[in-house]
Amino acid sequence: MYFFGLEFMKEIPFKEVLFHGLIRDAKGQKMSKSLNNGVDPIDMIEKYGSDSLRW
């Protein structure tokens, strides 16, 4: 989002940005295979199409 804003709007879209690799579910728990709260990519492709996972 930051880089798209910079590229297309020619200005910095945010003053501060935090990049991290942690993804949380709707309950705020860390998403992981061991907690079995991940999202099945096949279900997402069937529901939203394959482009939704690429972008």
TrEMBL record:
Q: What is its EC number?
A: 6.1.1.9
Which InterPro entries would you find in this protein's record?
aa-tRNA-synth_Ia (IPR002300), Rossmann-like_a/b/a_fold (IPR014729), Valyl-tRNA_ligase (IPR002303)
Any matching Pfam family: tRNA-synt_1
UniProt keyword Aminoacyl-tRNA synthetase, yes or no: yes
Q: Which GO terms describe its cellular component?
A: cytosol
PANTHER family attached to this UniProt entry: VALINE--TRNA LIGASE, CHLOROPLASTIC_MITOCHONDRIAL 2, VALYL-TRNA SYNTHETASES
Aminoacyl-tRNA synthetase class Ia domain sequence ranges: 1-55
Tell me a Gene Ontology molecular-function term this record carries.
valine-tRNA ligase activity
* Gene Ontology terms: biological process: valyl-tRNA aminoacylation
**Name by which UniProt lists this protein:** valine--tRNA ligase
Q: Which keywords does this chain's UniProt record carry?
A: Aminoacyl-tRNA synthetase, ATP-binding, Ligase, Nucleotide-binding, Protein biosynthesis
